[in-house]
Recover the amino acids of this structure.
């Protein structure tokens, strides 16, 4: 994330509020504006303004719920924006490597416990590299399925899968992509049972079923 994107306290705060709002809706579709305002330590009116802005941008959809309440849902666009802002925050705070390395260790432990030794990494960029690095001291066989044709030198020794069909030869897949994780998650779920599709928790893919299915506002 370029520094121009976070070049002022105003923009910092705007992204913080937007990310907090998207996270709140992601965690609880019946969350109230008052609860969001309290959690983010902002005025109720400001919460309403940001919520309306997110709805207008197509990041959140709203439906009528019983007892004159409303239910809020992230759209695929909203989920992608939440992932982008999360990555920006982690990168800015220099926590991306530490958080992802911890996630990778936990995921690889799960794989080895289940005797899943052939693992395909889905994605491109920093997360894939950190996962690949974390696997170096483990008895695992990795392959890469990327959504672009670019990859760095550090991934040169990992075989690249050229087709979706080739993924089925692996024990499980790990979605480690911050540009379009929903698309890769949907692909993985079309080929593997849910328990064999893994991902860092901060991507929020455990609650992405509706978005992965293409739910729109």
């Amino acid at each position: 994330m370029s520094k121009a994107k976070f070049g002022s306290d105003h923009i910092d705060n705007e992204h913080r509020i937007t990310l907090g709002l998207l996270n709140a809706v992601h965690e609880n579709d019946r969350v109230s504006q008052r609860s969001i305002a309290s959690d983010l330590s902002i005025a109720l009116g400001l919460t309403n303004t940001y919520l309306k802005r997110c709805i207008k941008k197509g990041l959140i959809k709203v439906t009528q719920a019983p007892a004159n309440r409303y239910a809020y849902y992230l759209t695929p666009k909203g989920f992608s924006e939440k992932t982008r802002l999360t990555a920006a925050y982690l990168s800015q705070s220099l926590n991306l490597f530490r958080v992802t390395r911890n996630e990778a260790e936990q995921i690889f432990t799960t794989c080895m416990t289940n005797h899943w030794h052939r693992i395909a990494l889905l994605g491109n960029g920093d997360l894939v590299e950190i996962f690949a690095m974390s696997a170096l001291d483990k008895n695992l066989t990795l392959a890469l399925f990327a959504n672009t044709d670019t990859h760095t030198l550090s991934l040169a020794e990992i075989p690249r899968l050229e087709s979706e069909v080739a993924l089925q030869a692996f024990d499980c897949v790990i979605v480690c992509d911050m540009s379009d994780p929903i698309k890769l998650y949907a692909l993985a779920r079309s080929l593997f049972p849910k328990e064999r599709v893994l991902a860092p928790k901060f991507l929020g893919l455990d609650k992405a079923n509706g978005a992965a299915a293409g739910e729109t506002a």
The CA atoms of residues 102 and 134 lie 9 Å apart. Strands lie at 60-65, 69-74, 118-122, 141-145, 172-175, 197-198. Helices lie at 9-27, 33-40, 44-56, 76-92, 96-113, 126-134, 181-191, 209-212. Residues 1-11, 212-217 have pLDDT under 50 and may be disordered.
